[in-house]
Design a protein that fits this description.
The protein has one helix at about 30-35, and strands at about 10-15, 25, 50-55, 65-70. The protein has about 80 residues and is mainly beta. The longest helix is centred in the middle third of the chain and has 7 residues, at about 30-35. The model has no long low-confidence stretch (mean pLDDT about 80).
Protein backbone atom coordinates (compact mmCIF):
# COMPACT_ATOMS: atom_id res chain seq x y z
CA UNK A 1 0.00 0.00 0.00
CA UNK A 2 1.30 3.46 -0.93
CA UNK A 3 1.30 6.37 1.47
CA UNK A 4 -0.42 9.25 -0.33
CA UNK A 5 0.15 12.78 0.92
CA UNK A 6 -1.99 15.85 0.32
CA UNK A 7 -0.04 18.69 -1.29
CA UNK A 8 -1.25 22.26 -1.58
CA UNK A 9 -1.96 23.30 -5.16
CA UNK A 10 0.62 26.09 -5.03
CA UNK A 11 3.32 23.46 -4.39
CA UNK A 12 2.64 21.49 -7.58
CA UNK A 13 3.40 22.31 -11.21
CA UNK A 14 3.57 20.38 -14.46
CA UNK A 15 6.34 20.68 -17.04
CA UNK A 16 5.44 20.70 -20.76
CA UNK A 17 7.57 20.75 -23.91
CA UNK A 18 6.82 21.45 -27.58
CA UNK A 19 7.51 18.36 -29.72
CA UNK A 20 8.60 20.49 -32.67
CA UNK A 21 10.75 23.36 -31.35
CA UNK A 22 11.61 22.24 -27.78
CA UNK A 23 10.05 25.38 -26.25
CA UNK A 24 8.93 24.53 -22.70
CA UNK A 25 6.79 25.82 -19.85
CA UNK A 26 5.55 25.00 -16.38
CA UNK A 27 1.96 25.51 -15.23
CA UNK A 28 0.09 25.06 -11.97
CA UNK A 29 -2.95 22.74 -11.82
CA UNK A 30 -5.40 25.66 -11.67
CA UNK A 31 -4.01 27.06 -14.94
CA UNK A 32 -4.37 23.69 -16.63
CA UNK A 33 -7.94 23.30 -15.32
CA UNK A 34 -8.96 26.66 -16.77
CA UNK A 35 -6.99 26.58 -20.05
CA UNK A 36 -6.35 22.95 -20.97
CA UNK A 37 -3.11 21.74 -22.52
CA UNK A 38 -0.50 24.48 -22.98
CA UNK A 39 0.02 25.56 -26.59
CA UNK A 40 3.44 26.47 -27.99
CA UNK A 41 3.65 30.19 -28.79
CA UNK A 42 6.12 29.52 -31.61
CA UNK A 43 4.42 26.57 -33.35
CA UNK A 44 0.77 26.96 -32.26
CA UNK A 45 0.48 23.25 -31.37
CA UNK A 46 -0.27 21.44 -28.11
CA UNK A 47 2.73 20.84 -25.92
CA UNK A 48 3.48 17.37 -24.52
CA UNK A 49 3.38 16.58 -20.81
CA UNK A 50 6.84 15.71 -19.49
CA UNK A 51 6.63 15.55 -15.69
CA UNK A 52 5.04 16.75 -12.46
CA UNK A 53 7.10 18.62 -9.88
CA UNK A 54 6.34 19.37 -6.23
CA UNK A 55 7.95 21.93 -3.91
CA UNK A 56 10.48 20.09 -1.76
CA UNK A 57 13.77 21.13 -0.22
CA UNK A 58 14.73 17.69 1.12
CA UNK A 59 16.82 16.76 -1.97
CA UNK A 60 19.64 19.15 -1.04
CA UNK A 61 19.12 21.49 -4.00
CA UNK A 62 18.21 25.11 -3.45
CA UNK A 63 15.48 25.09 -6.14
CA UNK A 64 12.84 23.75 -3.69
CA UNK A 65 11.65 21.25 -6.32
CA UNK A 66 11.78 17.50 -6.60
CA UNK A 67 10.69 15.44 -9.59
CA UNK A 68 8.15 12.93 -8.35
CA UNK A 69 7.12 11.27 -11.60
CA UNK A 70 8.54 11.24 -15.09
CA UNK A 71 6.23 10.28 -17.96
CA UNK A 72 6.98 10.51 -21.65
CA UNK A 73 3.83 10.52 -23.75
CA UNK A 74 4.04 9.43 -27.36
CA UNK A 75 1.05 10.05 -29.60
CA UNK A 76 0.49 9.34 -33.25
CA UNK A 77 0.34 12.35 -35.52
CA UNK A 78 -2.74 12.54 -37.69
Amino acid sequence: MKNWKTIKEGQVRTYWKCPDCDDDCTVEPSWHDENGTPVCCECDIDMKYIRTEVADSSDGFEDDLAIVKVVMVETEKE
